[in-house]
Structure formats: C-alpha cells, structure tokens
C-alpha cells in the first residue's frame, strides 16, 4: 500500500492546525477496539452497526454472518464506511475509512487474520479457519471482508483538524 495524499481542510480546522499524519490515523485504526460500519440497504437507506475489526496488510477486516443485515446489504452494494474514535467533542481522534468491502476466502490470509484477531483481543476472539471464512462459537459460516481505504478522514478534537487521506487507485 502506497502512502496516501494527505490534505488539511482548513475550512474545518483551527487556524494554524497541522494535518493528522497517516501514521497517526493508521495507529488509531490498528488500536481501535470498536468500529461502526455503515452499509447501504437495497432501498438506499443506510444501515449502521458496531463491530470489531483488525488492520492487516493495509486494510481493515471484519466479519459477519451471511444472514445478517450488513451481509445482505454488501451483496447488493459493497461500498462501506468504517468509523472509530471517541464520544468526546473536545479530545481524541475520529477516523473514517471509505472503501469497497471484498470477501476474503484465501486460506493463508484467513489464517493470518484469525491470528491477528486472537492477538489483538488477548485471545477473546478465537476464529477457526474454514474453506469459506471462519467458524466461531458454533457459527460455521462467518464471512470475512477486507476494506482497503479509498479515502480516510481524520478529525482531531480539542485542537480541531479535518484531514483527508486519499489513496491513488
């Protein structure tokens, strides 16, 4: 993954503010315990739900059961936004990743992702790799998706900044 083109949007930033570096935004993605995913229903309405995700190989990865609303939405429209941050207005960093969710079925990648999930949460998320994804707590068909950023937005709070990280196609 090449480094993104980073730009501070001065319209929404404090005077003299500096852009949030991609390194800082990426670290927030790597360390976040919870994300909110936004998908689009077939009728165009948004659907938002919390989930856990891991950053690996320049992408965010998440899981869902095939019958869940987000999986049904992704079947018709793979465009998503994954959001993480904090619920304070005066401190912290919120980061949003826009991109296309792609199903992961490569066994070697799934093995690495299962290891990453277990490591990130000290063994609390244990996935077994199957031919089509993961198995978890009796669910035999857990779909795994990867989202490479097309664009990432970083919103610094306290010292307010609005940074866009654009990724060349």
UniProtKB/TrEMBL annotation:
Signal peptide: none annotated. Keywords: Oxidoreductase. InterPro entries: F420H2_bilvrd_red/Heme_oxyg, Pyridox_Oxase_N, Split_barrel_FMN-bd. GO terms for molecular function: coenzyme F420 binding; oxidoreductase activity, acting on the CH-CH group of donors. Residues 25-152 form the Pyridoxamine 5'-phosphate oxidase N-terminal domain. GO terms for cellular component: cytosol. Pfam families: PNPOx_N. This is Pyridoxamine 5'-phosphate oxidase family protein. It comes from Actinomadura soli. The lineage of its organism: Bacteria, Bacillati, Actinomycetota, Actinomycetes, Streptosporangiales.
């Amino acid at each position: 993954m090449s480094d993104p083109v980073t730009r501070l949007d001065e319209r929404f930033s404090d005077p003299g503010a500096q852009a949030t570096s991609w390194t800082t935004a990426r670290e927030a993605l790597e360390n976040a315990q919870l994300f909110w995913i936004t998908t689009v229903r077939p009728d165009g309405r948004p659907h938002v739900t919390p989930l856990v995700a891991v950053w690996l190989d320049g992408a965010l990865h998440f899981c869902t059961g095939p019958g869940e609303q987000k999986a049904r939405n992704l079947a018709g429209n793979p465009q998503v936004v994954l959001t993480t941050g904090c619920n304070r207005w005066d401190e912290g960093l919120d980061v949003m990743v826009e991109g296309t969710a792609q199903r992961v079925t490569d066994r070697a990648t799934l093995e690495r992702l299962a290891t990453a999930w277990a490591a990130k949460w000290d063994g609390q998320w244990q996935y077994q790799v199957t031919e089509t994804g993961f198995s978890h707590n009796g669910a035999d068909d857990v779909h795994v998706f990867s989202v490479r950023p097309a664009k990432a937005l970083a919103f610094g709070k306290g010292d307010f900044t609005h940074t866009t990280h654009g990724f060349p196609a």
